[in-house]
Every structure is written in C-alpha cells, then in structure tokens.
C-alpha cells in the first residue's frame, strides 16, 4: 500500500510460539487464570523472552496492532495533495481490516476472548482510540485553516472507525464467514458518500482527454417539490449525476 | 429533560468529602502516589466507606458518570416517534455537557489529571464507549428494518460523540473559559445538518395551518452544470430550500 513500507521482516518463531501458547491457554483456562509463567512453560522459553516481545499479558492478545499503527501512520504520511482526504482515511482503515482478514480463525477467537474479559475490552478501546487519533490528525492537517477544520476532522475520523468496526464486528460475529472486504467497502462507501468532497478529487471529474469539465459541460435540471426531504433530493441527484 | 427522571436525591456528604479529599491528594502527590488509605484518612472516614461509594480509585475521578449514563438511558427510553432520532441523540449528548459545565473548575482539574495518568485515560475511554453504545442502541431501534440501519446508527452515534467531545475538550483546554453550551450546540449542529432527516421531523415542514406539505406544494427548479461538485449543488439546494 504505502511505498514507504518495507518488506516485512520474518516474524521470530519465539514470538509466534508465545502467541500460540498464550491463546491455547486463554481458551482452555480463561485469560485471568493464565499466568505469564504458564505461557512461557508451554512455549518452552524463559520468562524474559516473553517480556522482550510483549510489555504485558494483554499485549499478547493483540500482537500485530503496533505494527499496523506504524503502517497506517506511514501510509498517511506518504499522502499528497492529490489524495482526496476522506478517501485516504478510508483506505488507511482498510489496513486494519487486512490484519483481521489475514487470519480469520485467530481473529474470531480473539473477538470472543475480548468480549469475555473486561481488561481486554479496555485494551481494545485504547487501540481503537489510537487508530482514530491517527486518522483525525491526518485530517486536521488536511483541513487546516478551513472553518471548523478540527471538528470536521474528528467527526469524520470517528465515522470512518465506526463504519469499519460495524462491518468488521458483523463479520467476526458470523465466525469470519463471508467477504469481510466487501462488507467494509460497503460501510466505508457510506462515509465517503457523506463526507468526501468531489472538489478535492479532480480525477473523479475529468472525462476522456479534451472532454474534461469546462464551461461547455452538460446541464442537469432537477425538479423537486419544496416539501421533499433533502435526503431524497440528494439521492435523486446522485442517481442522475451517476455518482456513488 | 426526561419526564422519567425523578428529583435527584441530595448527595451524601461522605461521598462529596471523599471526592474532595481524593482530588486534593491527586493534584498534590499524583494519582499513582495516592492510596485509598490516604484518601480516607484525609476525609476522616473508614476504608469501608470509600468502597461503599466507589468500586476503585479510578471511579472517584469520575463520580457522576454512572448517574449521567442512567439519565441518558432514561431520556432515550422516554422518546417517542415524534422525536427526530438524530436530534434526539444530540439532545441526549447535551446531558453529558451539563455534567461538565455545572462545575468548570472540577472538570478542568479532572481533564488535566486524565491527560497525565494512562489508567484514567483508559477509564475515560470506557465511559465514552458506554455513552456511544447507549446512543447507538437507541438509533438502532429507530432505524430497525431500514437498509443499513445498524451501520447508520453506529456511524451517527460516533459522529455525535466526536462532535460533542471536540467542543468539550476545546473548552476544557481553554480552562473552562467561554460558553461550553454554545460550542457544543455548534458542533452538534454540524452532525444534525449532515444526518437528520427532515422527513422524520414533520413539524419542521408544516407551514401555517392548511398550508402544510401536500401535492400542491411549491416547485423548485435547480439547474446545475454536470461538472459541478456535488457538495456545491447540495449547498445551493440548502440555500434555495431554506434549510440549515
């Protein structure tokens, strides 16, 4: 995705072994009843090895989020003025989906575990918050100097995260069956339709060479009853203008 | 607000004394360096009194959120079909603002403390999440059976919370100076403008008696170049139709 993301280094086998041992014990005995000593004993490594890879027992449940946050930050930092900002944060959110969709069985197990353990729920909320802040900071930069720039940035970042998580959680609740990517695309399209400004995406509006926007463009006439709800009028406009 | 919210019972003086003692110590020594024993010693009560009112040291920092969550739930439960749902969740969010605006000095102190202590930040995220779920559950009920009902409910709830918190935090960062209510109204108006469906708010559209919407309503004709950005067309429509 991002040109700045290097080829990922091979994951150390010790780290993988710790994650596998931890999940086996969490599912057998429960998260609270499993100690770090239990995990290292099953993985056949020393206690110090655990803390070399994971600051806490909670971190082993979400082993890839730090890497994904770093990828997202790099992806957003590599953006240029040619990227429509709302579309860009939607694409950034898809990096998180990829993390879950790569390993459906693991993602579904973790989802069930997180639902059961309040400490993991709190940990997950803090991870989600960091993703949302990364998106909001990027949008704040793009909207700098505009009226209500920080307000719009924060609201759109929250909308993107909520749409992404609505689709992701439906998929996880259905045991990872179905096309998570299509569900997330549909949810993010709702946000893009609401907030993306076509004015920021000139490529979307240029037709074949020489037939781009200009004073001679087609004219659309829309007739509406004054009492028609605005959303119906917008829906009709979108159909007429053949926009998403 | 809600007809179902009874006159609040007077707060027990012991509870208030514990909150005051805790905050004095948190600010003097830091949150981590203060024990429950320190707090009860300063408040002049026994250790068991503390845990009668607060499950943990974190809870004493947010003494009123449980009550506010209960008020919000009651307010939403008292809604009828006559309430436009997006406006209703905006009004529900204003209950949280009231909590902060009632006591600006305390709110600003707590904001500073929360920024410094990761455990309190995590606690605050879980509180915000519960407010957001309360709003989303209400909207899911109102949107039941509509296409993308849960998606829209989750996105709008997140947008309302983000807008509210954008304005609230600006106010807290400015040391509680200025009109928090006006700032939150402005932020929530942005969300209402985006999502509220006039179709759900018939009162908004009826003119003088006998002149309400009907087949004989006015006709608006809008002419647009095909290459005009959609947001500009919508902006123009809003002006023509005299809608917010």
TrEMBL record, chains A, B:
Residues 12-72 form the HTH tetR-type domain. Gene3D superfamilies: Homeodomain-like, Tetracycline Repressor, domain 2. Keywords: DNA-binding. PROSITE patterns: HTH_TETR_1, HTH_TETR_2. The keyword DNA-binding applies. The keyword Zinc does not apply. It comes from the Bacteria. Residues 35-54 bind DNA. This is TetR/AcrR family transcriptional regulator. It comes from Streptomyces lavenduligriseus.
């Amino acid at each position: 995705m991002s040109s700045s993301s290097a080829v990922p280094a091979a994951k150390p086998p010790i780290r993988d072994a710790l994650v596998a041992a931890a999940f086996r014990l969490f599912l057998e005995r429960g998260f609270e009843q499993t100690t770090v000593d239990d995990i290292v004993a099953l993985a056949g490594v020393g206690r110090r090895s655990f803390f070399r890879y994971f600051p806490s027992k909670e971190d082993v449940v979400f082993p890839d989020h730090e890497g994904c946050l770093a990828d997202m930050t790099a992806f957003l930092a590599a953006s240029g003025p040619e990227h429509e900002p709302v579309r860009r944060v939607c694409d950034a959110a898809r990096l998180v989906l990829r993390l879950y969709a790569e390993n459906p069985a693991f993602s579904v197990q973790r989802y069930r575990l997180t639902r059961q353990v309040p400490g993991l729920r709190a940990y997950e909320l803090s991870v989600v918050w960091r993703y949302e802040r990364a998106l909001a900071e990027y949008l704040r930069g793009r909207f700098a100097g505009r009226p209500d720039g920080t307000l719009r940035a924060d609201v759109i970042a929250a909308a993107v995260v909520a749409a992404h998580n609505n689709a992701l959680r439906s998929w996880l609740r259905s045991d990872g069956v179905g096309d998570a990517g299509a569900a997330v695309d549909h949810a993010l399209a709702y946000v893009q339709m609401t907030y993306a400004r076509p004015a920021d995406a000139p490529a979307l509006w240029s037709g074949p060479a020489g037939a781009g926007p200009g004073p001679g463009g087609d004219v659309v006439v829309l007739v509406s009853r004054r009492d028609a709800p605005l959303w119906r009028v917008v829906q009709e406009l979108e159909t007429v203008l053949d926009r998403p």
